[in-house]
User: What shape does this take?
Amino acid sequence: MAARVDLLIGAGYLWESGRMASARGRPSNVLTLDGSGGVVLAADLGAAHATVAVCDLSGHALMESVHDLRIADGPEPVLRWLEDRWRGMLTAAGVSPERVLGVGVSVPGPVDVRTGRIVHHTSVMPGWHDYPFRDHLQQRFEAVCVVDNDANAMAFGEYHTHWPSSSPLLFVKVATGIGAGLVVDGHVVRGADNGEGDIGHVRITSAEDGPLCVCGARGCLAASASGRALARVLREGGVDVSDSRSVVQLALTGHAEATRLVREAGLMIGDVLATAVSLLNPRILALGGDLVLVQDHFLGAVRERLYQRTQPQAARGLQVVTSRLGDRAGVVGAARLALEEVLSPEAVDAALAARQELAGRPVP
Ligand SMILES: [Zn+2]
Assistant: This one.
């Protein structure tokens, strides 16, 4: 045990942060994760924005910045841009690239996390279908790389930062699109084929003859209740709005039609979430994304519908909250997902073994 701890300290994973008196015998050493033992690179890519960060091993951001970025420009220019940002940040922070132990990226579309490839050709990410995103990152950085869907990353970031003992946590993102991520006992719940959480395409009967969804079907929740859908309805009524964010800004200034639409979206989303809550009985339902900013109308409507349509046993201990990390949830979650891999027992064993081999010593 002592030899193993010495090795972990020598390799920069742990440090002795103090001593604690014990009832019997010698005082014990307090060991703390050494955040400075390396860094992870993190990015949250949205449809039109990107948040990029360099974080230490405790997940604390050493540098972080937000940029305009069109993900629809496709893999080559986006990944070249991303690598330039990260390398610039490493230089500015005085961190050598050899100290990069992991890379985590969240994207606004479905990902096969086993292969690290983008799954669908979606309207948000044209040109990315089947792109070997993770392999690309691994070639550039020789580190543990993770690519995941944004709702999963946000759920993971929110759980580990603010609700580490409140499991299960269901995170729902309502912005341009609608998606969900579920964390149980500290881990993102994965479906058999990584199709989990795609609640934006659940059919709502009240809209079966409704507008066409980006997926090609009619009646999807996202076709009526997403920021994209609300912007479309307002534009058809002659209001000058471009996207989810401008709808929210309009509602926040008291625009009657925008406010009414946001409330209706909250009711429709609450309907679908009542089913999710009945099925999963989460402790925390965290709502994130643009629309959540219209707290009174949106959150009020979600809560109203949810409590009307859920049995007391599933709703009694439920806390419906807004994302505490806000716009940072994706990048914090992406860093945490990378750290989960970097600090996994297998990865630490492999790193220690390589270190001992270099020194010609056995691993304790
Ligand atoms: Zn759809």
Remarks:
- The chain has a mean pLDDT of 92.
- The first helix runs from residue 2 to 10.
